[in-house]
Amino acid sequence: MNLQGVWCIARPxxxxxxxxxxxxxxxxxxxxSLIQPGGSCFYxxxxxxxxxxxxxLYYQKAGRHYWNCDFKNSGLTVVTDxxxxxxxxxxxxxxxRPGSRLFVVTWDFLMLEGEGSGFFF
Length: 121
Hints:
Blueprint: E1 7-10, H1 16-27, H2 47-62, E2 75-78, H3 87-90, E3 110-111, E4 118-119
Antiparallel strand pairs: 1-2, 3-4
Helix pairs in contact: 1-2
């Protein structure tokens, strides 16, 4: 599989405490300014989205091995870019600042690594 298009995100069933733990762990290793106020991934402001952003940063930095996205079984890899998936359809009136990139986890339709078809949440 081509790992260029693989991202790590938080599982939708992950507890708030585990998401917080993942953020704290990843931010000890990667630069988490993206999820701080004024950062390009600050919005939407939810633990799920913030954790997914920093988990993916960690995954990319650590070498993109499946174990780099485990986070005590609270992460999963996807092959559909979660920063753009269906967001324009779900939130057509949302405007981004020029040059910013929005990382949004949508659970409508994602491709799981190693699967041949879509996985619905």
